[in-house]
Amino acid sequence: MHEMAIAVEIVDCLLNVAGQHKATRIGEVEVEIGRMRQVVPEALEMAFSAAVAGTLAEGATLKLREIAVTAVCNDCGTAYSPDIDVSFVCPSCGHANPGITAGDDIVVRNITCDVDEGVST
Fold first, then answer.
1. Beta carbons of 87 and 96 less than 8 angstroms apart
2. Sequence-distant (≥ 6) Cβ neighbours of residue 58 within 8 angstroms
3. Which of 3, 14, 38, 70 is most buried, by the most CB atoms less than 10 A from its CB?
4. Please, what's the b/e burial string for 63-100 (b: 16 or more CB within 10 A of its CB; e: otherwise)?
5. Dihedral angle sign, alpha carbons of residues 29, 35, 37, 38
């Protein structure tokens, strides 16, 4: 289950940012996940719950947004959205030589933290 490795990386990122801002608690995190990563949202949510246990992020809400795959054909230059479950074939020229332009990343887009008012960041 690669979702656990992804969850651990997300939590590491959260704790790093929280430490930089002297956060006392992490309440919510918004993550964009490209469809190419083939993440099962329910599995990632379970892995995230396990990964945050005992940290500042314990109990945090994980909001996931899936990003569709888009590509540009490296042969003819056509922009298209391949169906990664079926084929990467370009609808214009019929070649399967895509340059992926979106949908292959995992991005922590937003983190909501509580910060002690007496501590400057």
1. yes
2. 52
3. 14
4. eeeebebbbbbeeeeeebebebeeebbbeeeeeeebeb
5. positive
pLDDT tens-place string over residues 21-76? 999 999 999 999 999 999 999 999 999 999 999 999 999 999 999 999 999 999 99
Show the tokens assigned to 25: 């608690």
- Residue spans of alpha helices (H) in 1-121: 2-20, 41-52
Q: CB–CB of 89/83 below 8 Å? A: no
Tokens of 50: 């396990």
CA–CA separation, 67 and 102 (whole Å): 7
